[in-house]
Amino acid sequence: SSVPDSFHEATTMSPKETVIDVAKARQQHEYYVEQLKKLVDVVQFQCSEEFPDGVYVEDPAVVLQNKAIITRFDHKIRKGETAYMKHFLENMGMEIHEIEKIDPEARLEGGDVLFTGREFFIGLSTGTDKRGVETFAKVFSEWPVTAVPVLKGTGVLHLKSMSSMAGVDVIAIGDTPAGNEAWKVIESEGSHKYERLAFPDDNAANCVFINGTILHCSREDYPNSMHVWESIRDVPRVEVPNSEHIKADASLTCPSIRIN
After folding, report:
1. Phi (first) and psi of residue 68, to 5 degrees
2. pTM over the 0.85 mark
3. How many whole angstroms separate alpha carbon 113 and alpha carbon 76?
4. Alpha helices (H) along the chain
5. pLDDT band at 16, cuts 50/70/90?
6. pLDDT top residue among 51 and 142
7. How far is it, in rounded angstroms, from Cα 87 to Cα 169?
């Protein structure tokens, strides 16, 4: 999706005086899309100007193979995004499952869903609850699903605000109270053992690993975490500036959704 003119009204945990530079946010997103196009086919989804957060297509749906689950937001301002995403995925021939119709009280946001290639870890956050995890597990019953805590009061919005896949069986995750609490569950309750790549900054651990290349945060955004990315010698890496989207609590995985 593209960055709407209304983006300055995006939902955020940042202080009210935080000013988002919409033009710069648009430039950063265009660079992000440009880098993705070098690695994979990209279809750009157009969302309405009435949805300031519409560029973050990761949240309204989770897709794996030919199956898609349409999530359910607690934020009123974001509820309409799911209808746009449902229509888009239906036109692509996806098998659609809607949280709203399965359990109208369940809450689930795509930013809480981490797929490792072997199983799902789902964050219990302000946007996702146990009923959301249980409903997700019913839809994707062929895969192991484990709920992971997202500590409140740490500035972490979703599970993927502090974690992501950084390689085959490699999980990048914050070396912080929130990240360490999540890692305990991933390590003890997951069905597979993973290598941990630990970061001083939670959001710096969010990256896009695709076709053997990592798109990760820029030095400007997270200088204290760059040494971790630089320690990876055998995988191509691309720094992607994300300052304006960070102000809207967004990570690098937020503006894209993978369709296999």
Report:
1. -130, 135
2. yes
3. 21
4. 22-37, 81-91, 99-102, 130-139, 177-189, 226-230, 243-246
5. low
6. 142
7. 33
Q: pLDDT tens, 114-142?
A: 999 999 999 999 999 999 999 999 999 99
Burial-class residue 197 by CB neighbours within 10 Å (0-12, 13-18, 19+): buried
d(CA 168, CA 116): 8
**Using the 8-state DSSP alphabet, how is residue 125 labeled?**
S
Residue the block writes with tokens 């989207």: 245
Section 151-159 average pLDDT:
93
Q: Is 189 left (phi over 0), alpha (psi -120 to 50) or beta?
A: alpha
Residue (of 80, 89, 22, 74) closest to 47 by Cα position: 80
Yes or no: say if 158 and 123 are a contact pair by the CB < 8 Å rule: yes
Phi, psi of 153 (to 5 degrees): 80, 10
What one-letter code names the amino acid at 132?
G
- Name the residue with tokens 């265009």: 30
Give catalytic residue positions. Answer: 158, 254
Q: Distance (Å, rounded) from C-alpha 62 to C-alpha 228?
A: 29
With pLDDT > 70 as the criterion, what percentage of the chain qualifies?
Answer: 97
What is residue 133's predicted lDDT score, i.e. its pLDDT? 98
In degrees to the nearest 10, what's the CA dihedral of 162, 121, 151, 130?
150
The answer to whether the beta carbons of residues 224 and 201 sit under 8 Å apart is yes
d(CA 198, CA 201): 9
| pLDDT for the residue numbered 77 | 74
Structure tokens at 250: 């967004």
pLDDT of residue 7: 87
Q: Taken in order 109, 92, 260, 234, is the CA torsion positive or negative?
A: negative
Contact 167, 134 (CB under 8 A): no
